[in-house]
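Repro:
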Amino acid sequence: MPATMKAVQISRPSGNFEIVERPIPEPARGQVRIKVEACGVCHSDLLVKEGHWPGIQYPRVPGHEIAGRVDAVGADLTLWKPGQRVGVGWHGGHCFICNACRRGDFINCENEKITAISFDGGYAEYVIAPAEAVAAIPANLPAPEAAPLLCAGITVFNALRNAGARAGDTVAVQGIGGLGHLGIQYARRMGFQTIAIGRGADKAPLAEKLGAHQYIDTNASNPVEELKKLGGANLIFATAPDSKSMSALFDGLAPNGKLLIVGAAFDPLTISPIQFINGRRCVQGWASGTAKDSEETMQFSALSGVRPMIEKFPLEKAAEGYDQMLSGRARFRAIITTN
């Protein structure tokens, strides 16, 4: 086994991607070393690239959609064994002792670790992760397709399955991008009447291919009026990080409907209290999930045929993959591969 590995790091906030040689790290007790096969490029990698996460230390290797194989494990660890196909997502571990953890609510751990923020991520040939952050990958799911399911996939799947909507309900998916193209697939396979909402007639064929029963082009019609013709949406699933668009859809909810947000926008929503009161409607946000949620996301995806649309880049071209993601040119998830 070689003593060093290639990694792509950021040395300072707003710095450039640097290809470096590093010693291959050794796993400590409770840790797993993974030989990376693929790593998704997520919009949240911006937090590392630009230094937007408070307290992040540099140099740092980005990447929190990691798929590969167990290469080595720390002392006394029996859960994972070398050779197993595994992945790591946004949730990079928890403390087990805070109030949230004692309730089993690990994603809200007061001391939660974030992959590629708390420790180095997957833009590298090897990565070390806490054992509790590791998820098994189904045998029939290739690493480049599994990787984006460990952040984009789990966020969408876990939010939808916990939203309270029932089979046959009308679910409108706002946005047909990195999250939305998965959201449409999951919504259709969960038995919802699936409505895709996007901008431009050119997206209609893709929305239909992904499984939407109907496509609403916001350039050609008023989406609220179109949703009202269907009796309103029981759930509007906001995947595109555009607060203005989310707010504009709120009145398209049916009575007791919910606006469920996974698109991480920073500007405020503009919804008045009377809009909540009329129809007893609500807004909820959802963030990712644990390693077990990741496993269930991948198992459902393998079973039902949900697959991300991906574009591959070798590790040496990580900067190009990041630029494709940031510009919106990637359709729909950029994936860095190491072999």
